[in-house]
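Hi support team,

I submitted a single chain yesterday and got back a structure, but I'm not sure I'm reading the token output correctly. Could someone confirm the output below corresponds to the sequence I sent? I've pasted both exactly as they appear in my results page.

Thanks,
R.
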Amino acid sequence: KRQDMMFKTLEIFKTVYETKNFTTAAQLLFLSQPTVSVQIKQLEESLDVVLFERNGRQQIVPTKQADLFYEQCQQLLDLWHQDLHQLQHQERQAKIPCRIAASHTTAAYFLPALLSRHRAALDALEIEICTLNSSQIVEQLSQHKLDFGFIEKPLTEKDIVRTPLQTDQLVLAGQPTEPWLLRENGSGVYHYTMNYLKENNLTLDNVMTIKSNAIIVQLLRQGLGQSLISSAALLDYPEIPYRPLSKQYQRQFYLVNRKGLPQPIQDFVATLLATPLPIE
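Hi R., thanks for writing in. Yes, this is the structure output for that exact sequence:
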């Protein structure tokens, strides 16, 4: 019971550190705000360090001690969850939970083919896949909410390994008189779109922000909009007009993974990295 309470306290600290807000952390943890505050205060007293500088009721700033403890906390929680999973599944051969995220382009045109080539390796893993933009993937990796992912921007953080996988060519699809269909800030293609607009002295007078490549493609099929998009996204839709762009609009897909993964996931990542897969 004491161990259980200790790990609950670590979960509270981790959530407060990531949200920088007691109230938000309490809501995410389904606890009251005073409970969260008391737990953090008791943790600080137990460690004899200040973890957060309080600037008013809402704003808190992690100290250098908190930065260090956050790294140690994540390692402890990872080990705890792995051990707990094995204990709860000891009667049968336990699969290792493996949390994967892919950006919208890699999820649709890259990841399925890559995984299908290694179907046998999936037997030892309990796979969970979600779709996020590149920035969100790196953020969640740094928070140990994911094990590895596929991104479209050269992003990295401390304790995250980034490996190039595949080159992708962006094109300008749709009609020049149509409104711009933009991915959200943080997606891989957003950066290239901003560069293209600046390079060509274009302004965004008529724009739609869409958080889905699939929706953008379907709008383009209906003759609505123009957008920078991966050439791979248009392979099945020859009716969508597009204009090739220069090599400046080539980008790299990356596999990003956090350090300290369980060995079966490390082996799976190594297998994926050993089989570069061209988009065809």
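A quick pointer for reading it: The longest helix spans residues 64-88. Let us know if anything else looks off.

Best,
Support desk
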